[in-house]
């Protein structure tokens, strides 16, 4: 019998790269820049002190993700979750990336190598 952790890994189709605070790429949306918590081929999670820039009504995001090595990639997706925490002023925003607008697997692999 498999444990819950291995079942969760099997359900996840895309590898997620998680970044320690202050080390991840930046998401640039217009004139604003946000810290990225994690990425996958089909998703980005960011942290912001300004959730009002994402709600109410903003359902779609088009942005550039700028990696620490200076490389960048344009993304486009839908906001699927806004998480406000009770003990922190920061809000977490989860974005599902549309087909054709995701982060390439080769870039995910490169990011995983730099995290090792």
What does this structure look like?
With about 120 residues, the chain is an alpha+beta fold. The chain has one domain: Thrombin, subunit H. Helices cover about 15% and strands about 40% of the residues. The chain is built from two helices and seven strands; from the N terminus they run H-E-E-E-E-E-E-E-H. A six-stranded antiparallel beta barrel has the order 2-3-4-7-6-5. Strand 2 (about 25-30) and strand 3 form a beta hairpin. The relative contact order is 0.20. The model is unreliable at about 1-10 (pLDDT under 50).
Percent of residues in helices: 10-25%
According to DSSP, the number of beta strands is: 7
Report the uncertain regions: 1-10
Work out the strand percent.
35-45%
The domain count comes to: 1
- State the shape: globular
Radius of gyration: 15 Å
Keywords:
Thrombin, subunit H; 2 helices; 116 residues; alpha+beta; globular; 16% helix
Q: Topology of this structure?
A:
Layout: H1 4-11, E1 17-18, E2 26-29, E3 32-40, E4 43-48, E5 60-66, E6 72-84, E7 91-97, H2 105-115
Antiparallel strand pairs: 1-3, 2-3, 2-5, 3-4, 4-7, 5-6, 6-7
In short:
The protein has one domain: predicted glycosyltransferase like domains (Thrombin, subunit H, Beta Barrel). 16% of the residues lie in helices and 41% in strands. It has helices spanning 4-11, 105-115, and strands at 17-18, 26-29, 32-40, 43-48, 60-66, 72-84, 91-97.
């Amino acid at each position: 019998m498999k444990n819950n952790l291995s079942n969760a890994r099997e359900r996840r189709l895309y590898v997620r790269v998680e970044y320690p605070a202050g080390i991840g790429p930046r998401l640039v949306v217009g004139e604003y820049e946000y810290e990225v918590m994690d990425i996958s081929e089909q998703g980005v999670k960011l942290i912001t002190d300004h959730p009002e820039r994402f709600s109410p009504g903003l359902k779609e995001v088009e942005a550039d993700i700028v990696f620490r090595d200076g490389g960048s990639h344009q993304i486009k997706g839908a906001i699927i979750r806004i998480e406000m925490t009770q003990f922190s002023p920061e809000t977490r925003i989860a974005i599902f990336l549309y087909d054709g607008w995701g982060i390439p697997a080769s870039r995910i692999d490169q990011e995983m190598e730099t995290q090792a």
